Amino acid sequence: MARSECRTGVKTEFGTFFAIYKIAEQIRRSKSLNHGSGDPFTARRNYRRWRNPNGENPKNHHYGSSYRGNSHTSLSPYFPATPEQIITDAVKAHEAGAAVVHIHARNSEDGRPTSDLAIMKQIVASIKKQCNAAICITTGGSLLMSKEERLAPAVELQPELASCNAGSVNFVFADMAAKLKNPKYDWEVPYLKGTYDLIFSNTFAGMEYYIETMNQYDIRPEFEVYDVGMINNIAYFCNKGIVKKPVYLQFVMGILGGIPATVENLAYLVKTAREQIGDFVWSCAAAGKAQFPLVTAALTMGGNARVGLEDNVYLKPGVLAKSSAEQVIQIREIAERLGLEAATSDEARKMLSLKGNGKVHF
């Protein structure tokens, strides 16, 4: 049985990478790179043009690393769950090339996701002290938190970036419960099973509240897009005049309840966003085994890449990542073989028009 599963996995990955190769070939050959913006492959040219008003190197792409959101401590012995472990992992990821770190806080006693301000402040202040990474604080928190709880750390700490979920979605991890044979904590399995009957609620009133609050504190929203309809939600707020440019989109793919993690769907997301929003900066994250194939595709299409243990605990099939830094190193090596260069944190700040880490409140 194990041998059969392994073969299936190899076929799936080869097919995905072949699709990436075909996309790269179309990008190199397509005349659409020199014409309008209706084709998804024009995203690369338009993105570079937007990013390059002062003649900066157009090859730079930024890598983000994501930390411990709704993933679970028992999935891997290397999963950082305490504030100290999260700090160390984030700093090492930055040293490996991550320009942005996306932070969730966890209770040091049982690894449970928390919006506790003291814990979040301890984490982000220590990261800031030790490195120059641009810090993105989650407003996703836990699926069980209220919108006020989810936004509280961003309001109090006023980071450069904060996540902003772009719509409601079924966010299902229930099948993961069967994989936790010996869970470390008694809350993990009930939490996972509970997602089978739970909607991750992000109403229009809630989204407007998040956006306007972030505007008030000069926080750049990182719009997390779990399905294509959420692009229309963001476009609505853009047309309403409350979303400041540059618009920053994070396509989060492969969550059960959201859009499947395929190269074709990624191209469609980019195409739809180009049609609905116009100019924007974008990145891609993908759950589980789809992580590296999809973020590689994103790089070939002119986007940026998010890796990290929040999204995937593996480095390759059957090999657990010992840190988020290992994943950053791997995607950076892939990018360099494609002729792409990593952006520094300060270059990422310029791309996203961030206020700088001297204006945060931690």
From TrEMBL:
Record key words, sorted: Metal-binding, Transferase, Zinc
Record bears the keyword Amino-acid biosynthesis: no
Required cofactor(s): Zn(2+)
Gene Ontology molecular function terms on file: 3-keto-5-aminohexanoate cleavage activity; metal ion binding
Region described as Disordered: spans on this chain: 32-69
Pfam families with a match to the protein in the record: BKACE
Top-rank taxon: Bacteria
UniProt cross-references to InterPro entries, sorted A to Z: Aldolase_TIM, BKACE
PANTHER family: 3-KETO-5-AMINOHEXANOATE CLEAVAGE ENZYME (PTHR37418:SF2), 3-KETO-5-AMINOHEXANOATE CLEAVAGE ENZYME-RELATED (PTHR37418)
Protein name per its UniProtKB record: 3-keto-5-aminohexanoate cleavage enzyme
Lineage of the organism: Bacteria, Bacillati, Bacillota, Negativicutes, Acetonemataceae
